[in-house]
Amino acid sequence: MHFDRNLLLEMLQDAISDQELFIVGLTVSDSVMPKVTVTLDGPEGLPIQTCAIVSRRLARRIDEHYGEDSAYSLEVTSPGADQPLTDPRQYPRHIGRSLALKLADGTEKTGTLTAATPDGVEIEEIIKQKTKKTILPAAFYSFGDIQEAKVVISFK
């Protein structure tokens, strides 16, 4: 069986149309039993109950289109804490947290996210030297300059 990714995206958009969610990723494996993996996020994160609702809605649409006898597995999930931020809408809820940025020019910056706009982010970079920590004034980085951004998880 072969799933049409564009059709699945339409079905998924329909399944989340009444939610404040956005699609972070959609993958379909080309194995004997295809696996559809949906990654969603929202302004306040993604509760597990919402994953279940979206999963049921999407499964119903897939079954209606491809037939109830079609064999596939479906996973609806949120990005893990260790996953990079890939959509500008993911940043605002992380204001106040530490981010690690890899920039397009090869440099890396780590600091506290102080602002997120539709165009980019502002971070107060933290420079560590032996026992001394210096916090630089906030600097702006456009999304076009950010190659990868991850929330730095600390266990204090």
Summarize the structure.
With 156 residues, the protein is α+β, with helices and mostly antiparallel strands. The chain contains 2 helices and 9 strands.
Would you mind describing this structure in some detail?
With 156 residues, the protein is of the alpha+beta class. The protein has helices at residues 5-15, 48-66; strands spanning 22-28, 35-41, 73-77, 98-103, 108-116, 120-129, 132-135, 139-142, 146-151. The protein has two domains: 5-77, 2-Layer Sandwich (GMP Synthetase, Chain A, domain 3), CATH 3.30.300.20; 88-151, Roll (SH3 type barrels), CATH 2.30.30. It has two helices and nine strands. The strands form two sheets. Strands 4, 5, 6, 7, 8 and 9 form a six-stranded antiparallel beta sheet that branches. A three-stranded mixed beta sheet has the order 1-2-3. It is elongated. The model has no long low-confidence stretch (mean pLDDT 92). Pfam families: RimP_N. It comes from Hymenobacter negativus. Required for maturation of 30S ribosomal subunits. Keywords: Cytoplasm, Ribosome biogenesis.
